[in-house]
Amino acid sequence: MIDSKKRSFWKAITWRLFAIVLLAVVSYKTTGNMKSASLITLFYHSVQVVMFFVHERLWNYIKWGKTRGMFIQMTGLSGAGKTTLARAVEKRLKTKGFKVEIIDGDEYREGLCKDLGFSKEDRNTNIRRLGFVGKVLSRNNVITIMSAINPYESLRNELRITCNAKTIFVNCSVETCIERDTKGLYKKAIAGEIKNFTGISDPFEDPPFADLVIKTDNLDLDASVNLLEEFILENV
Ligand code: ADX
Questions:
Q1: Is there an atom of ligand 1 within 6 Å of 98 CB?
Q2: Terminus of the chain with fewer CB atoms < 10 Å: N or C?
Q3: How far is the CA of 118 from the centre of ligand 1 (A)?
Q4: Is the CB of 197 under 6 A from ligand 1?
């Protein structure tokens, strides 16, 4: 992000104040003359204030080395590993200086999307809301990863077009998800205690045009995160 002109100006002033004191002390110690020390300090720093301001403004226009944003829409069954992958890659990217945000389906369903259920219409509204947040964040230089089941191709396509989203299919068979059942939801869905459960009693459409497929029932976490990180660094 570019500093405002005002901010750049005040940064230049405070930095110069530190340096003025330092140079004045050193000049006085060297010349032993207060007038010479003042003149040296005044001349040197007047030039430096202007140079610093110009230098800062010029660098702001150089794109090289600045972090950029992108929007990833993950798609995959509950328990496929979307959020685990997103959190792991977030950690790696942050150490490289990127800004990263995860839009987690479970988390948003407790807040912004609290009013929504799991009908096709509600899921579509859910994804549209998350997509909007993703679009805003990514255009402000944040790598944004949406971790939601996102089961319908029509909505993924909508986000591809309207939010410039890249699609990552976290592909894990329903059998493996049932076996893992980290949240105990599959057991309940199979018992009929949860209606419209994706993969059991509600559809999941495999994405035919994913930009990346990560098969989490074959790959271990580290290998999966490597794939995801590589993809992000190549496309950001
Ligand atoms: S989406 O279909 O609209 O993309 P989202 O990712 O927000 O779904 O929420 C899915 C999470 O809600 C699951 O990981 C699970 O924890 C929980 N959940 C509760 N009921 C259902 C259901 N009927 N189908 C799928 N997930 C459900």
A1: no
A2: N
A3: 7
A4: yes
Q: Which residue has the tokens 């685990």?
A: 84
Tokens 């549209």, located at residue: 128
pTM for this predicted structure: 0.81
pLDDT digits (tens, 9 = 90+) for 126-181: 999 999 999 999 999 999 999 999 999 999 999 999 999 999 999 999 999 999 99
Distance CA 236, CA 24 (A): 47
Distance 77 CA to ligand 1 centre (A): 9
Please work out whether the CB of residue 194 comes within 6 Å of at least one atom of ligand 1.
yes
Is the CB of residue 207 below 6 angstroms from any atom belonging to ligand 1? no
Q: Is the CB of 148 under 6 A from ligand 1?
A: yes
CATH number, domain 70-235, options 3.40.190.10, 3.40.50.2000, 3.40.50.1100, 3.40.50.300: 3.40.50.300
Separation in Å, CA 107 to CA 80, 112, 165, 195, 202: 17, 9, 20, 20, 21
**75 in the Ramachandran plot: left (φ > 0), alpha (ψ -120 to 50) or beta?**
beta
